[in-house]
Each structure stands twice: as structure tokens, then as C-alpha cells.
Specification:
Elements (H helix, E strand, L loop, with lengths): L1 H6 L8 H27 L3 H13 L8 H28 L4 H7 L6 H18 L4 H11 L6 H15 L16 H22 L9 H24 L5 H19 L2 H14 L2 H6 L1 H7 L9 H18 L4 H6 L2 H15 L5 H18 L4 H15 L8 H18 L2 H5 L4 H5 L4 H17 L7 H10 L1 H4 L12 H16 L6 H15 L4 H22 L15 H16 L4 H17 L3 H17 L4 H17 L5 H15 L5 H11 L14 H24 L5 H11 L1
Helix pairs in contact: 2-3, 2-4, 3-6, 4-6, 5-6, 6-7, 6-8, 7-9, 8-9, 8-10, 9-10, 9-11, 10-12, 11-12, 12-15, 14-17, 15-18, 17-18, 18-19, 18-20, 20-23, 23-26, 24-27, 26-28, 27-28, 28-29, 28-30, 29-30, 30-31, 30-32, 32-33, 32-34, 33-34, 34-35, 34-36, 35-36
Length: about 725
């Protein structure tokens, strides 16, 4: 016994080369004894066959190999044992030896490990002979295997038992089926083997020095399938119906999972349960299954396992719509929501990213199984807000990524931001994003609206929408816009401008409310943003003016009906904000656009006011000579198209325009502006002006300026550009 004990004593770890040498020695021992065993089998010498097979199996008693190398050695021996099993079966069939005697005979092998391998091999033949009930033999074998308590050797021995017995279980419809209770015996055998294997597997973690803990974890991970195969066998037993699964199988498995208190085993086995058993079983035993999660070790990656369960059940619902009533019946959403709450409560140190990931999975499940229940969706978002409450804005990039996934899911599902706007907790979740991510999310929301051409048609919805995209339309607290890339900033603001163009309602009153809401938000945007957003608002408002053309009324108070006058008031305020920043040229253009619209609505005082504002801007804000040239030609072109002004107002405006034209910096520019003014006195429309005398005056004035330009050119020996001016005046 002392010698045997020494042989199996745990030896110190060697290097990779030593391990290869030990493996080679073990394989050589297996092959040598297998050779003599084959010779004994060929000569029908049972005594020698048992002797050499026991010696061959003794090679598996080594403690020097890692699990990976031990598996190689085990497979060599396993292949030989299949041949020995066929010999035993042939011997008992011929009557050379009774299977009962053989079962007794192998128990005389000297060492426990070879004895149990041989016992399992003969046990397989014993069951197949049907000379004893399968349940009795299996019970005997699973109890006998307790003789090996070394974790690695015990695991492989029980794996061998599982392998040779899987087709011999007393299952319903099996040739080994016994009485009505036999199915319970089959389940009990597999469960008992699973429990013992799991105990051995967990014990491996606690053997050896602490410094090698990580290495042992990796080695154990390589062996996990040996344990998991038992659950696969259980799932394949025909007799395991929903009732038996609910009453016996699942509670026994979960009891072992929870009690083993090993994070690797708990994670793997929970994952196994979800993968191997049918979706219908999970749905009907949801409460039992979920009750185990809060009891797992804090270090277990619960979010991954729970997410897989929710994904699997949501796929089940999507592929079989007829089972949806069952989800409602078992209150799947409430159970998942409750379980996630308990898991988070049981693990106070769970990182934010873990909790948010769980809520993302729950939201995905909800959107796939209960897409019509917006209250469920809002409940998930609310639970996430509760978890985040008391925390500052998220700085963990992984948690931020999960929050974006959480917020994007409803947009992708409903293809309609209007639905998301009904979720009260949606903006509350967004509040936990940092400024940069808030902008990213705002762009995602706008892109969703563009992609689905969503029409947002009420002022309260637009109020909610602008609250969501506030990161784009105003400076956030602590934000540094100077750090933002100029191109990115332009793209963001252009997306807001496109969004404003998509806001529409056929009802004039509601459309006016929409414009007022947009105005309120964009005027808070700061000077850099106004140049992008104000033009969109102005042209949207002018579209409404065209629809209202012909309506009029006195504008008093806030709740007045939508009339052109009311809208022009709003436009005046809006453009005025733009003219206060370094964008006077843009403000001037917009004033002229509004003047044209007022002309079409027969609102002379309004049109005159817009022209007045344009002239003030020209005088006070536009100093660049090139900008002045562009501005004066715009004023001339717009004024020419105006037909609403009375004689006095028109004279005032044309006189100012001509005066500004003659004061441009360069003579050629003055000349061109002045001869362009001649068009103001001769228009071809029905009520047009045909004042030939003033046209002539303009052209003569242009000639005087051209002459002066030529004299200056001659004095400085300049170019003949002034000749071109005479030709242009002649054309006029």
C-alpha cells in the first residue's frame, strides 16, 4: 500500500519538456500493455487480458500531467477499452464466461482506479445482457466510483461511466426500460454522477499553492465540458417532461450550482442549463430559475448569463408568435425585472456597466416580446435611472456605450421618434451622459428622424424633442465648444437645420406654436449656432406665410390667430438676434426675403420695416467693400420686384439705394451699382413704373462716374477697364 501510495503521490510541477516526457512514458506504457492485452484477447486468455488491461489502466494513476496532457493519455486508454468491452460481450455471448462472474472477477484487480474502469466496462456488458435491471447496475457503478476522490482522475473515471452508460439508461422507449419508476432511476443516476463530478471539478481549484490559482482556473476551464455533458444527457432523456423538470431536475441542479460557491462552476453551469434545456421549459420554470441568480457569487458574470436567457426567450417569442400569450400568463417581464433588481441589490459593488447591460437585455427582451407595452419600456428606463441616481455623469466608456445601446433600442424598434418621446424616463437617462456623448445621441436621434422621414407635428412633442437634442442646440454646462472640430460642428448644426425643415402641421395655429417653440430653443444657441439654425426657421415660417397669404388682422396679445403679421413679428425678433452677431450679411439677406414675402401679402408697413432694418445693417454693420457690393445688388434686385409701395415710400427707398450705390469704395463698383438702379424706375409688370426721365438720370450719373474712373486710370496709366464700363452702360 505504501508503494502504491508513493506512486500516486502528487509530484512537483515540471517544465513543459518534463511533461512531454512523462506523457510519452505514459503512452508507451499504455501501448505496451495494450499489445499484450490484444495477444491475450486473440488467444481468448481472459486472465491475461484482465492482467494487462489493469496494468494499462494503471498509467492513468499519474498525477504529473496537466488536464490537457492527461486527456491525451486517457483517450489512448479509452480506445483500447472499447476493444476490451467487445471481447467481454463476445465471451458472454458464447457462454465462455458468465457476465455475473465477470462482474465479480474484475473487482479483484489490485488498484482501485483500474478496478473501477474495468467494472464500468463489464457493467456496460452486464446491462446490455439484461441479466439484471439497468437501474441496479447503474446505481452500483455510480456508488462504486466514489472510491476515487482525486479530482482529475475521478473526473475522467466518471466521464467514462457517463459515456458508456448514455445509451443504456432505462428511459421511456428504451430497450432497458423497466417499471414506471425506472425513469426516476435514470434521472437519479445522471444527477448523482453530475453532482459528484461537479464536486471533484470544484475541488481542483483548492489544491496546490495559491500562486498557481490562475493556472488551475485555466486548467479547470479546459475540463468544464466533462461536467456539462451530464446536463446534455439529462436534456436528451425522453422521460424528462415539463413536470419532472420542474419538480426534480431543475431544483436539484440549481441546488448544486448555488451550494458549490465556485464562480467558474456557477457561470458555466447556469449557461449550460440555459443552452441545453428547451425554451418552453425555461418559460414555465422562470421563477425557479431566476431565483438562483441573486444567490450566485458576486464575482460571477451574471449579466452575460441573464442576457443569454432573455435573448433566447425573445428569439423563442419571435419564432413562435403563438406562444406570446404564455409570456403574459407567466408574467415573464415582471419576473425578469424583479430578478434583475434583486441581483443588483445582492451585489452592491456591481459596476454600473454591469447593471446597465442587464437593463439593455431586459429592454431588448421587452421590445421583442411586448412591443406594444410602452409602459414596460418606460419602466426599464426608470429602473436604470434609479440605479444611476446619485451618480455624476458617466465617465466609464463601456457604461456609456451601453447607455447609448439602451437609448437606441426604442428608436430602432419603433422607427418613430414620436413613440420614444412618450417615454418620460428617456430624457432622464440621457442626463447621465457626458456632453460629448449627449451630442452623439442627439445626432443618432436626428438621423433616425431623417431616415424614417418622421413628421413631428405638435409643439409639445417638439418641446420634448428639443430637450433630447439640447446638446446640439445650446452650450452645455462645462462644455468646451472651442475644442470641437470645425467640420464636426458644421455637420451637427446642419443636421439641426435639416430637422427644422421637417417640422410640419397642416393646422396653421399648431404650426405657429411649433415655430414659436423652435424659436425659443434656437435663440439660446449662442452666436456660432444661429447662422445655421435661424435661416431654417425663417424659411419654415415664410412657408407658413405663403399658406396664409391674404389673411390679415390686428396682432394683440399672445393667443392671436396665426396671421402673416404675427409671423412677421416673430421673424423680426429672430433675425434681429442674428444681426447682433458677426453675421450681418446673412441677416440682411433674410430681411430682404421677409420684405418680399410681406410684399406678396400686401403688407406695405411690414415690408417697409424690413427694408429699413436692411438699410440700418448696411450702414452700421457691413464695412467690407466686397460685402457692400453684394449687399447693394441684393437690395436693388429685391426692391425692383416690390410692387406694394406707395410713391412716397418707394421714392425714399430708391433714393437711399441710389445714394448707397454712389458711395461704394471703387469707381467701377459705383458705376455698376448706379446703372443697376436704373431698373428701379422702369419695370415691366402690370402696375409697373415707367419713369424714363429718372432712368436717364441714373445712366448719365453712371456715365459721369465712368468718365471719372477713366481719368483716374489715365492719370495712373492703369488698364482700359473703364472702356468696359461705357460698353456696359451702352447695353443698359
Amino acid at each position: 500500500m505504501a508503494a502504491a501510495s508513493a506512486a500516486v503521490r502528487m509530484l512537483p510541477d515540471g517544465g513543459a519538456d518534463d511533461e512531454e516526457r512523462w506523457l510519452a512514458e505514459g503512452i508507451a506504457g499504455v501501448q505496451q500493455n495494450a499489445f499484450y492485452m490484444h495477444r491475450a484477447l486473440d488467444s481468448n486468455n481472459l486472465k491475461d487480458a484482465l492482467k494487462y488491461s489493469a496494468q494499462m489502466l494503471s498509467e492513468l494513476r499519474t498525477s504529473r500531467l496537466s488536464p490537457h496532457k492527461y486527456y491525451e493519455l486517457y483517450m489512448r486508454a479509452f480506445d483500447e477499452m472499447r476493444k476490451l468491452e467487445m471481447f467481454f460481450r463476445e465471451e458472454t455471448r458464447r457462454g465462455s464466461c458468465s457476465v455475473v462472474d465477470l462482474y465479480e472477477l474484475v473487482q479483484h484487480a489490485g488498484n482501485v482506479l483500474p478496478r473501477l474502469y474495468l467494472l464500468c466496462t463489464v457493467g456496460s456488458v452486464y446491462i446490455k445482457s439484461k441479466e439484471a435491471p439497468a437501474k441496479d447496475v447503474l446505481k452500483d457503478l455510480v456508488e462504486m466510483c466514489r472510491g476515487i476522490q482525486h479530482p482529475l482522475r475521478g473526473l475522467f473515471l466518471r466521464s467514462y461511466l457517463s459515456q458508456i452508460s448514455r445509451d443504456k439508461l432505462p428511459d421511456i422507449g428504451s430497450e432497458y426500460e423497466g417499471d414506471a419508476e425506472s425513469i426516476n432511476d435514470a434521472v437519479e443516476f445522471v444527477l448523482q454522477n453530475f453532482i459528484e463530478m461537479n464536486k471533484l471539478w470544484v475541488r481542483m481549484q483548492h489544491q496546490g499553492p495559491v500562486r498557481e490559482k490562475e493556472k488551475r482556473g485555466k486548467e479547470r476551464n479546459e475540463l468544464r465540458d466533462l461536467v456539462g455533458k451530464n446536463l446534455h444527457v439529462l436534456s436528451q432523456i425522453e422521460g424528462v417532461d415539463l413536470d419532472m423538470y420542474k419538480e426534480t431536475v431543475l431544483p436539484r441542479i440549481l441546488e448544486q450550482v448555488v451550494n458549490c460557491k465556485d464562480d467558474l462552476a456557477q457561470f458555466y453551469l447556469m449557461d449550460c442549463i440555459i443552452q441545453v434545456f428547451p425554451d418552453e421549459y425555461h418559460l414555465q420554470t422562470l421563477e425557479t430559475l431566476l431565483s438562483a441568480f441573486p444567490q450566485l457569487q458576486p464575482s460571477v458574470d451574471i449579466k452575460t448569463v441573464l442576457s443569454q436567457l432573455m435573448d433566447r426567450l425573445s428569439n423563442y417569442a419571435a419564432s413562435s408568435p403563438e406562444v406570446l400569450p404564455e409570456f403574459l400568463q407567466v408574467e415573464a417581464f415582471a419576473k425578469f425585472s424583479n430578478a434583475i433588481g434583486k441581483v443588483i441589490e445582492a451585489q452592491p459593488d456591481m459596476p454600473v456597466v454591469g447593471a446597465v447591460t442587464l437593463y439593455v437585455s431586459l429592454l431588448t427582451f421587452t421590445l421583442r416580446v411586448h412591443p406594444d407595452r410602452l409602459d414596460y419600456v418606460d419602466q426599464v428606463l426608470g429602473a436604470c435611472v434609479k440605479k444611476l441616481s446619485g451618480k455624476a455623469k458617466l465617465e466609464d466608456s463601456r457604461a456609456t456605450k451601453q447607455i447609448i445601446a439602451l437609448l437606441s433600442a426604442p428608436l430602432e424598434k419603433y422607427s418613430n421618434i414620436v413613440t420614444a418621446l412618450e417615454l418620460s424616463n428617456y430624457p432622464r437617462v440621457m442626463d447621465y451622459l457626458d456632453n460629448a456623448t449627449t451630442k452623439v445621441m442627439a445626432v443618432v436621434i436626428i438621423q433616425s428622424i431623417m431616415k424614417n422621414t418622421t413628421c413631428i407635428s405638435t409643439s409639445d412633442k417638439i418641446e420634448a424633442l428639443f430637450d433630447l437634442i439640447k446638446g446640439l442646440i445650446k452650450d452645455m454646462d462645462g462644455a468646451q465648444d472651442d475644442e470641437l472640430d470645425e467640420e464636426d460642428f458644421k455637420e451637427e448644426q446642419n443636421s439641426v437645420a435639416r430637422l427644422i425643415h421637417m417640422l410640419h402641421n397642416d393646422d396653421h395655429e399648431e404650426m405657429l406654436k411649433i415655430l414659436c417653440t423652435v424659436q425659443k430653443h434656437i435663440l439660446l444657441g449662442g452666436p456660432k449656432r444661429l447662422t445655421f439654425t435661424v435661416p431654417s426657421l425663417v424659411f419654415s415660417a415664410l412657408k407658413l406665410v405663403r399658406r396664409l397669404q391674404g389673411q390679415d388682422g390686428d396682432v394683440t396679445g399672445e393667443d392671436v390667430p396665426a396671421t402673416p403679421k404675427k409671423i412677421f413679428q416673430i421673424l423680426h425678433q429672430t433675425i434681429e438676434a442674428l444681426s447682433c452677431v458677426p453675421s450681418p450679411e446673412l441677416a440682411l439677406r433674410l430681411y430682404l426675403q421677409c420684405a418680399e414675402a410681406a410684399n406678396d401679402c400686401d403688407l406695405e408697413p411690414v415690408a417697409y420695416e424690413f427694408f429699413t432694418q436692411a438699410f440700418i445693417l448696411y450702414e452700421e454693420e457691413i464695412a467690407d467693400s466686397k460685402a457692400q457690393i453684394t449687399a447693394i445688388h441684393l437690395i436693388i434686385g429685391t426692391l425692383q420686384r416690390m410692387n406694394i409701395f406707395g410713391v412716397e415710400n418707394r421714392d425714399t427707398l430708391t433714393h437711399k439705394t441710389t445714394g448707397y450705390s454712389a458711395k461704394l469704395l471703387k469707381k467701377p463698383d459705383q458705376c455698376r451699382a448706379v446703372y443697376a438702379c436704373s431698373h428701379l424706375f422702369w419695370t415691366d409688370d402690370q402696375d409697373g413704373i415707367m419713369d424714363g426721365e429718372r432712368v436717364l438720370l441714373c445712366l448719365k450719373r453712371a456715365l459721369r462716374i465712368a468718365n471719372a474712373a477713366q481719368q483716374m486710370a489715365n492719370a495712373t496709366r492703369g488698364s482700359s477697364g473703364s472702356v468696359t464700363l461705357f460698353i456696359e452702360i451702352l447695353n443698359k
